[in-house]
Amino acid sequence: MLRLRGGAAAALVVLVIGAGVGGCKKDALGPEGAQETAGGAGGAALAAVDSLAVKGRAPKTGYSRERFGTAWADTDANRCDTRDDILKRDLKDVKFSDGTCKVSRGVLEPDPYGGKDVTFVRGRSLVDIDHLVALSDAWQKGAKYWDASKRIALANDPLNLRAVGASANRSKGDGDTATWLPPNKEYRCTYVAAQVAVKKKYGLWVTGAEKAAMKKVLGGCPGQKLPSGGNPTQAPKRFHAR
After folding, report:
1. How far apart are CA 238 and CA 75, in angstroms?
2. Which of 4, 14, 28, 68 could cross-link with 9 by S-S, CB 3.0 to 4.6 Å?
3. What is the pTM of this model?
């Protein structure tokens, strides 16, 4: 019988936990990169699901994109709009057409949703910036009752945004975990953990079917961490929405 001592044994434990089960491979970074430590045997992400309120989906009545403010508002005041901030964060080999702000091209290596490399060229619709928790889904699960400042914050929070391939993203619509998951199965653990993090941060509820789907995915990812960080949950007062 082989006996391991000290660091060798610890390394083996880390290797086994990091490998995960059920076809989920841990991503190097979530949408924000910052991660909370795993909590309990199921991991911080799975544990956080139980902190989410469960209610039915409210009607979509009254929803419009404008209720979440002007698209890609510079809420962090860094003089770059939110879309360019996310492109700079998520793309590799980035080129600019305007100093270090306006991204003209880059490569998504790989597209987390489709699993293949996608080249971004400004003006061509091959890369989208996805709201991991869709704004209309958020509207039906609590955001309808918020003030405009909180809705604007959600729409521009890096924690809720990811550069993805347009082809896979267009099939998502306003789906939640119960109705849509990325075709790239290796990214599903990270994707669902990010949705849990956003809903927890903003106090959005989930449906019963959504909660069950979250638990099913994250149950196959022992030790899956919960993303953290992003912007404050209130946008600066200079921003307005309908």
Report:
1. 9
2. 4
3. 0.84
CA distance 218 to 137: 20
- How far, in Å, CA of 130 to CA of 38, rounded? 26
Quick one: CA dihedral 195, 201, 202, 205, positive or negative? positive
Distance CA 101, CA 96 (A): 7
Report residue 123 as tokens: 């003006």
80 pLDDT more than 80? yes
Confidence category of residue 140, pLDDT binned at 50, 70, 90 = very high
Q: Taking residues 159-188, report their average pLDDT.
A: 96
Distances (CA, A) of 124 to 72, 77, 173: 18, 27, 20
Here the tokens at position 84 are 């360019």
Which strand (E) or helix (H) includes residue 118? strand 118-121
Radius of gyration of the chain (CA): 19
Contact 188, 124 (CB under 8 A): no
Cα 216 from Cα 224, distance rounded (Å): 13
For residue 121, what are the CA distances in angstroms to 83, 91, 103, 105? 14, 11, 9, 4
pLDDT at 242: 84
Q: Cβ contacts of residue 180 below 8 Å, gap of 6+?
A: 171, 172, 173
Average pLDDT over residues 120-124: 95
- Number of helices (H) and strands (E), helices first, in the chain? 8, 7
Predicted confidence (pLDDT) per residue in 195-204, tens digit? 999 999 999 9
d(CA 194, CA 126): 23
